[in-house]
Specification:
alpha/beta; Rossmann fold; Dihydrodipicolinate Reductase, domain 2; 5-stranded mixed β-sheet; 4-stranded parallel β-sheet; 31% helix; globular
Length: 195
């Protein structure tokens, strides 16, 4: 087994090599494209083995995502703000992308337009994914990893937030992934699927 926390530029080839040699991968590096994840999934299936790609090993972020799924049943407007240290190589974070994907799986149409928006500074409204959910990325020294999911409705704002103050919060999820990866028959994306 190999645990990969390298760089988005090298993680894909690292994981392919691990699978080719029969080594079960546990990946904590984000920045893989959907196409790369799909290719790695097919590669693990051909190799008759499993692996894990976990955008965030913090149990608290899984709870935030589950709460967001519940909230999305009652709110049509949602945006995500993710904040990380200024040495994070990818934006938006894999955690923010995964959160938007989980909300998108509900099949809802989010953020119906009420006015015709004009951005006077490109990107000021954040990135817009296929789920029609905007993701805003902040990179500053002093931060580790933080995410907010903001739901809005007439007269109310519902905010979910997860803050990381020490990287030790990732270790229970890492240990869980290490213990479970050899039981898998395919590549799994997301910690919530092995809890």
């Amino acid at each position: 087994m190999v645990v990969d926390f390298t760089h988005p530029r090298s993680v894909y080839s690292n994981v392919r090599a691990a699978i080719a040699y029969g080594v079960y991968p546990v990946v904590g590096t984000t920045g893989l494209s959907n196409e790369q994840i799909q290719d790695l999934t097919e590669f693990t299936e051909k190799a008759s083995m499993g692996g894990l790609i976990i955008p965030n090993f913090a149990i608290g972020i899984v709870l935030l995502q589950q709460a967001a799924i519940q909230a999305a049943q009652y709110f049509d407007h949602v945006e995500i703000i993710e904040l990380h240290h200024n040495q994070k190589a990818d934006a938006p974070s894999g955690t923010a992308i995964k959160t938007a994907q989980l909300l998108g799986e509900l099949g809802k149409t989010y953020n119906p337009a009420l006015v015709e928006e004009q951005e006077h500074l490109a990107g000021a409204r954040g990135g817009l994914g296929s789920e029609n959910i905007r993701i805003h990325s902040v990179r500053l020294p002093g931060l580790i990893a933080h995410q907010e999911v903001l739901f809005g409705a007439p007269g109310q704002l519902y905010t979910l937030r997860h803050d990381t103050s020490d990287r030790a919060c990732y270790m229970p999820g890492v240990l869980l992934a290490i213990r479970k990866v050899r039981q898998l028959q395919t590549l799994i994306y997301g910690l919530e699927k092995i809890l």
